[in-house]
Design goal:
About 45% of the residues lie in helices and about 15% in strands. It is α/β, with parallel strands linked by helices and about 350 residues long. A seven-stranded mixed sheet has the order 2-10-9-8-5-3-4, sandwiched between helices. A five-stranded mixed sheet has the order 1-13-14-12-11, with helices on one face. A hairpin with an 8-residue loop joins β13 and β14. α5 runs parallel beside α6. It is globular. The relative contact order is 0.19. The mean pLDDT is about 95. Bound molecules: 4'-deoxy-4'-aminopyridoxal-5'-phosphate. 4'-deoxy-4'-aminopyridoxal-5'-phosphate binds next to α3.
Length: about 350
């Protein structure tokens, strides 16, 4: 665990020295039983993180690569995008840049689109897929993916693609239980591995759709991942050093911390932030949590404040790196990324410094 962390960017997050050290191992050839054994145990350990029985594919690339795989292999013509912030919008634009026609449902900043609105939009819309961001890293909103998926299921053929880039490993993710068709994520967020690996878990339905699609591309073709993952290999030369890091971290998560404890720790870190901001506000400081109560992500908190840039500079002077604001609340907020291997005590210490900074503004 990172006891006295000072790097609270919402990805990449701080990485434990043991995980960094794992990357110092000499190279191994990727077509060997040694690599297959690494892939086997790592993919097995990723299963519960994604709530997926089927293989979780590992892509050498950032989270965006896994999003593009989901779009290329899982959508046909018309996509409904739920937009709770900047990353929901990116998913929408990605579908457009791949030639799909996209309709958006946009929430107020800090709020979520209601299932009723989604049902209404889906009715008669001819959508073959819906995109939604689980943890919207820009506003700190957590979507109720189970509820969104239940509404989408009312339609005969609307697959659900979920961006869990800033939630997997820090919030409960459940591809099978939610009944969604793709869940994508990345290494540098709540899993606390350096950036450079992306993950995608998919349903049988999405696989069937991919089989019927002609232009899935090459690097991000789901069917190639299916074929190679079945043999515990990667279609291309993987980022071997990052796989060493992932292997070390997944073993630690499974055997040392435990996934349940990990999720509870993330919830406690988020609660520490919300409680502190509520107290400061009650004491007259002009701050508030962007995300509404009941829809807050356990991995990131966006905080509204009068002069967020100054807050960041002052925190930096104390050695703390926080995240800047991002659209749609770019100018009037900053963010604390409390994900990965940070401790509740570490977050509380950061909050003590933040309180002093805010009072001195
Ligand atoms: N979606 C969300 C919710 C994210 O937070 C991010 C990264 N900040 C991305 C997608 C893009 O991921 P990457 O930068 O790894 O491509």
């Amino acid at each position: 665990m990172i006891e006295a962390g000072k790097f609270f960017v919402p990805g990449p997050t701080e990485v434990r020295p043991e995980v960094l050290d794992a990357m110092r191992r000499p190279m191994i050839f990727h077509r060997t039983p040694e690599m297959e054994a690494l892939m086997e145990r790592t993919m097995r350990r990723l299963g519960p993180v994604f709530g997926a029985q089927r293989p979780v594919h590992i892509i050498s690339g950032s989270g965006t690569a896994a999003m593009e795989l989901a779009v290329r292999s899982g959508t046909l013509r018309r996509v409904l995008s739920i937009v709770h912030g900047d990353f929901g919008e990116r998913f929408a634009r990605m579908a457009e840049s791949n030639g799909r026609s996209v309709a958006r449902l946009v929430s107020e900043p800090g709020a979520v689109v209601t299932p009723d609105r989604i049902r209404e939009a889906l009715r008669g819309g001819g959508f073959d897929a819906l995109t939604v961001t689980h943890s919207e890293t820009s506003t700190g909103v957590l979507a109720d993916v189970a509820a969104v998926a239940a509404v989408a299921r009312e339609q005969p053929d609307c697959l659900v693609l979920v961006d869990a880039v800033s939630s997997a490993g820090g919030a409960a993710v459940a591809l099978d239980a939610w009944g969604v068709d793709a869940v994508v994520s990345a290494s540098q967020k709540a899993l606390a591995v350096p950036p450079g690996l992306a993950f995608v878990a998919t349903s049988e339905r999405l696989l069937e759709r991919a089989r019927a699609l002609e232009s899935r591309g090459t690097y991000l073709d789901l069917l190639r991942y299916e074929e190679f993952s079945a043999r515990r290999q990667s279609p291309t030369t993987p980022a071997v050093s990052l796989l060493f890091a992932l292997d070390a971290q997944m073993a630690w998560i499974e055997q040392e911390e435990g996934l349940t404890a990990r999720l509870a720790r993330h919830a406690a870190m988020a609660a520490a932030c919300a409680t502190a901001v509520a107290r400061w506000r009650a004491e007259g400081l002009p701050v508030s949590v962007v995300a509404g109560e009941g829809v807050r992500s356990p991995t990131v908190t966006a905080i509204r404040a009068p002069d967020p840039r100054r807050v960041l500079t002052q925190m930096l002077a104390q050695g703390y790196t926080l995240g800047g604001g991002q659209a749609p609340v770019a100018a009037d907020s900053f963010r604390i990324g409390h994900m990965g291997d940070h401790t509740v005590r570490g977050v509380e210490k950061a909050l003590e410094t933040l309180e002093r900074v805010l009072r001195a503004l």
